Amino acid sequence: MPEQGACTVVVGCQWGDEGKGKIVDVLAENVDIVARYQGGANAGHTVHVGDGQFVLHQIPSGILHSGRRCLLGNGVVLDVLQFFEEYDALLDRGIDIKGRVGVSYRAQLLMPYHRYLDKAVEDSAVTKIGTTGRGIGPAYEDKAGRRGVRVADLLAPERFAKRVDAAKARVCGRLEELGAGTEELDRAMDATFALGDRLLALAADVGKEISAALAGGRSVLLEGAQGTALDLDHGTYPFVTSSNTTAGAAAIGTGIGPTSITDVIGVVKAYTTRVGEGPLPSAFEPEMDEHVRKLGGEFGATTGRPRRCGWFDAVLTRYASQVNGLTGIAVTKLDVLDTLPELKIATGYRMPSGKVREFFPADTWSLSEIEPVYETLPGWQAPTTEARKLDDLPRNARSYLDRIEELTNAPVRWVSVGTQRSQIIPV
Ligand code: GDP
Ligand code: IMO
Ligand code: MG
Q1: Domain range spanning residue 122?
Q2: Are 355 and 392 within one domain?
Q3: What is the CB neighbour count within 10 angstroms for residue 205?
């Protein structure tokens, strides 16, 4: 019997946009299957191949490597319209996508009315979350409320239509209460229904497929969306997304057992960013914020919103290491810091009482009152984009990575120094 294949989770360790897409694309070179386990079209994973830039929202970031099977697990909320738009755009760009994408029969369908409700709730909310407006919260609410519809429901069209009508009527009632319109909703519903057969043709038993691949000695990557601080349970609640983003969800969201997972790689940006509402403890002062946003091109891949930027927060990444059980980290965007004369790392949070905490607090509101305790390290002020091994990096850049590794409590396994596939340092 072949030895069980490797099963690696790639998980964001900050507030999303850590560069998971780039890392998954690089690692996909050596795997057979890449599967998404949660989230939906709120994700925006950017991958550069040569001169081409691809922003993937629902299709796994392994799709740009010919031959790799790309699956969407049961933990995903699938926006059918957006999915086929993305699928067809990849086809148009000459990607050999046919026969390579599979969608779990158990995946929830994110229907057009979920998007309407997401926007209406956000518009009227006192405490705004700053969602991506992709319908994510309402779709997971319907899932937990047992009102959702899944890919497998498409097998019985009449029952499917009935269940959808009931869920839609409920949402439309809410929209009316909120004074929100439903223009174009019926057109979007018709367009979604029209794609039912096309979607069924891609349906797969994802858990079975992954388990069989692993048993046959093949290797699998489980691609997370969002990040640890956006996890519904472990993040900065309520300023989070509506799914569990952390590594534990990878087994549940694909239908394999947790003991199949062999590695958990946390993706950490060499600094911190956040898009949407909610506290960002290590936020830069406005001038520096603007400067690093420009250097790093920190604008949302899904919504185009500017991302807030800050120093590397080791209190958060240490917490992420514990919550995800990290076996290693991939540090991305090191090159963005190349010109800075000095760098800071947050190592603790000083409470208004003066007490310093080294652990990420459950009380989200306290995060807007704390003062980070910083350690200052010298910058390297030299380009890192051509480095291909650790020894090529300036000494101060290596010291910065050593400190991140020590404080995060997980070994650095990859360092990314640019958007291209080749711009990666295996450690
Ligand atoms: P994801 O959501 O975690 O996949 O991250 P995004 O794609 O939303 O944001 C990361 C951005 O940084 C993308 O535009 C990537 O092309 C870019 N990126 C990834 N790694 C690097 C890197 O090492 N250096 C630079 N300069 N850009 C990078
Ligand atoms: P990737 O996979 C960064 C944020 C939103 C908002 C909160 C809730 O590209 O890293 P939602 O639409 O999920 O209900 O929004 O979560 N958010 C992200 N931030 N990267 C993402 O995905 C995100 N997906 C959601 O900005 O604050
Ligand atoms: Mg992103």
Answers
A1: 108-197
A2: yes
A3: 16
